[in-house]
User: Fold these one by one.
Assistant:
Number 1:
Amino acid sequence: MAAGRLKDEKADALLVTFSANVRYLCGFTGSSGALLLWSGGARFFTDPRYTIQASREVDCPAETVKGPLLKAVADRIRRLKFKRIAFEGARIGFDDYQFLKDHLALGAALKPAAGWIERQRMVKSDGEIERIRKSVRTNSAAYERVLKKVRPGIRESELAAELDFQMRRLGADGCAFETIVACGERTALPHARPTAAKLENDQLLLIDMGASQDGYASDMTRVSHFGRPKQKIREMYRAVLEAQLAAISRVRAGRYASEVDAAARKVLKSYQLDREFIHSTGHGLGLEIHEPPRLGKKEKARLEAGMVITIEPGVYVEGRGGIRIEDTVLVTETGCEILTPTPKELVSL
C-alpha cells in the first residue's frame, strides 16, 4: 500500500486528493474527496453532498466537512501532530498547496510524493482486469453496431454522437475520452475532433473510441474506407498492421517498454514510413485513459504481468490521410492477451 512507503520516505502521513487515486485506495467514486493515510490509520473527507455515498463506498472512517476539505485535513494533521506530510505533487494545484502550507502547524512540512500510487496502479488486480475486459467488450459492441449503419452523407459529429449513445446503451458509464471520428484527409490528424464534415465516397474513416465502465477505460482505433481503397492506402494499412503485430509480438513480462516501440518503428522504417509515425506506440490504461507505462522510444520501464496497455502505431501523411490500429492488451508472463475482439482488416464500406 502507498502508506507503506512513509517510513522509507521519512514522512508521517500521505494526503491523496486526485480522484482516480482516491477511488483506487478507498473506493470513493464521487468528485469531492480527500484521503489521509498514515501508519496504522486512514481518514476520508468529503462534503455533505456525498455523505450517504461515502458511507456506502468508503472502506475507512469518513468525515463530512462543511467548508474547505483541506482545512479539515490540516486540522486533523495538527491534532495528530504530524510534521512531514507527503502529497501528490503532480496532482495538486498551487492554490491548494499554498492553502495547506498556510494552515499546517508551525514546523510542519509538505513533501512531494511523485507517482507513489500511480506505480502501484500499473499492475492490475484480477477484479480490475475483469472490469477492463467488460469495458473493452462494450466498446467493441458499440463500434460494431454503428459501423453497420454508416453511409456517405453522415457527419463526423453525428457518427461520434451515435457511438457515444451506443456505449451508454450497452452499459458504459460514458466515454473514456472524447470520441475521435475523422474522414478523408482529416485522418492525418492523430487527435482530430469530430466536425460537421460529411463522410464521402472514396475516403478513409478513422474511429478512435473508448468506453468507461465501472470506472475502467478501454481504447480502440479502427480504420475503414468508403469504396475500394487505392493501392497506396492498402500499402499504408499493411505497413501499420504489420507494425502493430510486430509490437504485440514483443509484449511480455520483463521486456522494456522501449523494445515494443522499437519493433513497430522497425517495420515502418522498412516501408519508409517511420517519419510519419509521430507518437509513442502505446500507454497504460485503467481508471484513467492514459496511465504509465508509456511505450515510447526512451522508456526504461519494464513490463509486468497484469499491466494493461494499448498498442497503437500509426502513420499520418498530409494530403492523403492517416491510419492507426489500436488494441487493448493484457501483459502476461509468457506474452500477452489481446483483449479487443474487433477484427483488424481494412473494411470497405
Number 2:
Amino acid sequence: MQQAFLDFVLQHYVAEGVEELEQSTLNPLLRLKYHDSITDAVADLGGKPDEIALAFAGFQKYLYQAQASA
C-alpha cells in the first residue's frame, strides 16, 4: 500500500480516533483521498480491492506492536 495513503489514514486516526481504523471506514477514506473515485484509488495503490483491504487491516498490527512489547 502506498505510503501517502497510509499517512493519510494515520492522520485521520490521530484526528478522529481509533474508529478510523475500522474496516468499514476504508471505502470512505479511499473516496475522500481519491476525490470520490475508487477506480483511481485502486490504480494508484496498485492492487485489487481485496488486496487493498488486506493491507489496510494488516498494517494496523504495527501501530500497536511496539506498545505491546514495551
Number 3:
Amino acid sequence: MKSKSEKKIAFFGSSHFSSIILESLSEEFNIQFVVIKNIKSDISTVSNKLSLRTILFDTLDPENIKEVDFCIVASFGAIIGRNFLNSNKFLNVHPSLLPKFRGATPIQSAIISGSKKTGVSIIKMNEKMDEGDILSQISIDMGDNINYLELEEKLANSSIKPLTYSINNFESIIPVKQDSSKATYCYISDFAREKIKINWNSNSDYIDRLVRSAYPAWCYFGESIVNIKSVSLTNRKSDKVGYIDSLNKDLLISSKDFFVKIEEIQKEGGRYITGREFKNGLSNSAILKFD
C-alpha cells in the first residue's frame, strides 16, 4: 500500500467536483476532517464512505483549523471569513485558467463561450473572489462536444497533480500574482432557470453550447415543459424557427440557421428518451412547434 504524506489536511467542499478531488486526495494525504455545508450532499456521501470526520461549516471553530497543515477548498460555495483565512494556509482549487472565469460557474461558462481550452488553477486564498496568487495551473483541451458533467469530472481529475504539487512544494513555490486587467467573471445568475431556456431563434451552434453547459436546457412543447440534455448539429438549413422537420424520422427542430437534432429529451416528470422515440409518440399530435 502506498504510504501517505504526513501533512494533515482539512477539506472544504460541497459538489460532485469536490467529491472527486476529496477521494483522490485521501489517497495521498491524511484528511483530518471534511467541512460541509449540508449533511445531504455529494461531499457528505463520499466523506462517510471514506470514514472521514465531518464538521458542519456553521459549527466550525478556528481552533479546528489549527489541527491541520493545509485547508483545501474546492467548489465550497460559501464565504470563508478572515478569521479562518488568517489562521492557516488555505488553497483553492478553481476550475478555470485564472484570471479567466472568476466566479461560481467557470465550467459552464467555458462551454457556452466556445472556449477550446480551460484548466485548473491552484491559488492561495484571500478575501476577494478567486483573486489569490497562483501556485500552479494545468491546461486541458476541451474537445468539440463535451458537456458539463464530462468537463467537471475531467477538470476534477486533472486537478490532483497540480494540487498535490502545490501542497508538497508550498514553501519553495514563488506565487504568481494574477493580472486583474485580464479577468473575466461568471455568476450563478448567468445560468438561472430563465437564462437556460432555449430560444430557437438562436444559431444552432449556440443552442448546442447552451444545452451542453446547462445540461439540461429546457423549453416549451405546447403547454408542457421539456428538458433537453443532448443535441447534435446538422447541415440542413431551416426557415421557420422552432418547428419540427416532418420529413425526418429523427426529431429535428429548426433554429435561426440550421435544424438541431434532439438526442435526449424528457417530458417534465418523465424519463429521458431519444428524440426519435419522442417524435414517434407524436403521431396523433397537432403540436408541431417548440417554444
Number 4:
Amino acid sequence: MRYRDFLVLMGVCLIWSLNVIIGKVMLSSYDIPPFYYAGIRFLGVAIVLSPLLRPIPQRIGQVALVGLLVGASHFGFLFLGLSAASPSSAAIVLQLGIPLTAMLSVIFLGERISSLRITGIALALAGVIAVMWNPEQMTASIGLVAIVISTSSLAVGGIFLKRLPPIAPLKLQAWVGLVSWVPLLLASWQLEAGQITTSLDGGYVFLAATLFSVLVVTVIAHTAYFGLLQRYEASMIAPLTLAMPIMTILLDVLLIGGHLSLRTIAGSTVALAGVLITLKAQPPARRDPVPSQT
C-alpha cells in the first residue's frame, strides 16, 4: 500500500472515531432512536448525492444488495448496539469483522494471507482486545447481538463490493443512501417512538451531528474507504482499520476526560505494532486506475 493511501485510511479511521463519540452522545444523551438516526443520515446522503444516481450502474441488483449490507444493516444495527451496549464491549465485538473479512476474502475471492500478515493481524487484534477488555461490562445483551449483525453485514458487503464491476465510490454512496433510508425509516416507524420530539429537543446539536454524519462520515470518509477497498485486497484493508478503536480511546481521553491507563498504553503499542507489520507484509498494490468520482 502506498503511504499516501495509508494516511488516507488513517484519516478515515479518525473520522469514524469521531462519529462513534458523536453517535453515542446523540443516542444516549439526546435519546435519538437508532433506526431513525440512521435513516435520516441516509436520507440526507440520497438527497445530497442524487445527481450521481444516473446513469444506472451495471448489476443494479448487486449494487442494491451491497447498499443494504454496508448501509441500512450495518449502521442500523450499529446504532442499535451502541444504544444498548457499553462502548467497551461493543468495540470488542466489532473487531470480529477483521478476521471475518480476512476469512471471507480467502474463501470467496481467492486471496492469500501470508504468515507475516497473519502475525500482524493477531498482534493488532490482541492489542485492541487488551485495551478494551473489561470483564465486568462483557454481559450478553441485545446490544452485543446487534453489533455482531452490524460488523458481519459490513464484512459480507465488502466481499460483494469486490465482485462488482468498477463503480465510482461516490456514485456507490449515492445508491447506498437511496436503498438504505426507506427500510430504516420503516423499521423506525414500526419499532420506535418519539422521533420528532427527540429531534426537536436535540435542536442544532442534532442538526450538526446529522450533517457531520452525512457530509463528513458518509460522503468523504466512506467514499474514500470504498475507493481503497476497490484498489487493495480486502484482507489488507481490514486489519489496518484496527487503528479506529485506538483513536476512539484517545479521543475519549482528550475530549471526554477518559482515563489513560498503563493497560491502554501497552495494548495500543501492541496493536500499532501489529498494524505496522500488516502494512509491511502487503504485496504491491494493483495498478488498476482509480474510479472517477463522477
